[in-house]
Amino acid sequence: MCGIIGIVGSSEVASALYDGLTVLQHRGQDAAGIATIDGNKIRLHKGNGLVRDVFDVPHMQMLTGRFGIGHCRYPTAGSEGSDEAQPFYVNSPYGIALVHNGNLINTDALRREVFEQDMRNVNTESDSEVLLNVFAHELAAQGTLSPKAAIVAVTGVHRRCKGGYAIVAAVLGLGLVAFRDPNGIRPLILGKRESASGTEFAVASESVALDILGFQRLRDVAPGETVVITARGEMFSEVNAPPGKHTPCIFEYVYFARPDSMMDEINVHKARMRMGVKLGEKILRLRPDHGIDTVIPIPDSSRDAALELANVLGVKYREGFVKNRYVGRTFIMPGQGERVKSVRRKLNPIPLEFKDRVVLLVDDSIVRGTTSQQIVQMAREVGARKVYLASAAPPVRYPNVYGIDMPSTEELVAHGRSEAEIEKLLGCDWLIYQDIADLEEAVSGPKRKVTRFDSSCFTGEYVTGIEPGYFERLRQLRSDEAKRKRRAS
């Protein structure tokens, strides 16, 4: 998962790109980068670390120009070195810098095709650099540079690339080119603002980045749509991919997105509140006499669900854990050993809220189970009489292949286990999972503007289809053992 942003302004945009990336930092803490266009030059700086650590005053002063792009990354494909930081850049044709959120599932075949057919070299293991070279080749084939040529080039990208992707590219002599995969798996939102110097446009992974910069949210970039915004502030758009199934990633709403974001016309905060209502109703169906004294969220992304769940049950909602905000998200930690250590550094229980009580801990999801296991143990250590655990999402039994770095199948706690077996492994007295139908209904909401989702990590049903052997290659990339070997080498 990554955060991306692009701005076409009427004045210097580097500081706005920086500010936008800081509110997208939750989407990736591995690396960050900004590219701006100043006349016929691309100004680029990127590196490993948080946004605040990658950029200092001299870097920001160097990033001159009135349009540009930014990226914050955590690795889903490729290695974890600084050469994987984005934006990526090619100088032919014209000069193109590109940022990508998502994951391609036909990268190996594309890499061979780019080298043998397009006669282009890909210098890293990143699927984003492969995608950049595909776009560059398709744009060069147009023989001219115009908004229409860029749109036709993206048509070629859709034809060749398979997976989930949201893209913003900065093209010298043209402007920004933003597009989204035909199924709309990864989010991309378009915004506009009026300044004293004219109309300005922005695109970003989440609407919150537009909000803090003063852009009005216009709409989502449609699945398979290309939006071209010229350096002069003219906007052109066209849906130029074969009709797909609009299936945004449901895990965005469960875990990744900020609650103050809107994506695909769905309010993330409200979606999580509805998850809590559904979960509360399930508990009442299963155990009307549940005996729960207190509902406690595992911060941060489960708070909305936990509060509504407590209201449905009619029991007290309490904050029982204090979070150290200077420790990163454990889901994004590179290795199992590091995740184990980080949980104790990250959360500390308040004994008063646990002692002699039946507590219901609420989490947004349970992936590896390592974090949940430790939190349940912490609750027992500070005196909880019984510890129940509720997940606002169903069991995660399958890898996510479209841009979320879930572990290999064997490392998922729910893979090959019944709920009773997971309950025993986690050490809780009762484990409650959300039902998939309830989750999808909660996210869709009463307006039901989106009725289908990529729920593949729960169901194993992949909208793009999966080629034979893909999961074995994924295991070799994503398992903790594979990552340890790459870091060691």
Concise structural overview:
The protein has 489 residues and is α+β, with helices and mostly antiparallel strands.
What does it look like?
With 489 residues, the protein is α+β, with helices and mostly antiparallel strands. The protein folds into two domains: 2-246, Aminohydrolase, N-terminal nucleophile (Ntn) domain (Glutamine Phosphoribosylpyrophosphate, subunit 1, domain 1); 270-450, Rossmann fold (3-Layer(aba) Sandwich). Helices cover 33% and strands 24% of the residues. It is built from 17 helices and 22 strands. The strands form five sheets. Strands 3-2-4-1-10-9-11 form a seven-stranded antiparallel beta sheet. Strand 20 (358-363), helix 12 and strand 21 form a beta-alpha-beta unit. Helix 4 crosses helix 5 and helix 16 packs across helix 17. It is globular.
Break the fold down into its secondary structure elements and pairings:
Layout: E1 2-8, H1 14-23, E2 31-38, E3 41-48, H2 51-54, H3 57-62, E4 67-73, E5 88-90, E6 96-104, H4 107-116, H5 127-140, H6 147-160, E7 163-171, E8 175-180, E9 189-195, E10 198-204, H7 207-212, E11 216-220, E12 225-230, E13 235-239, H8 251-256, E14 262-263, E15 266-267, H9 268-286, E16 294-297, H10 303-313, E17 316-317, E18 321-323, H11 336-346, E19 347-349, E20 358-363, H12 370-381, E21 386-391, H13 419-426, E22 430-433, H14 436-444, H15 456-459, H16 470-478, H17 480-488
Parallel strand pairs: 16-17, 16-20, 20-21, 21-22
Antiparallel strand pairs: 1-4, 1-10, 2-3, 2-4, 5-6, 6-7, 7-8, 8-12, 9-10, 9-11, 12-13, 14-15, 18-19
Helix pairs in contact: 4-5, 5-6, 9-10, 9-14, 11-12, 16-17
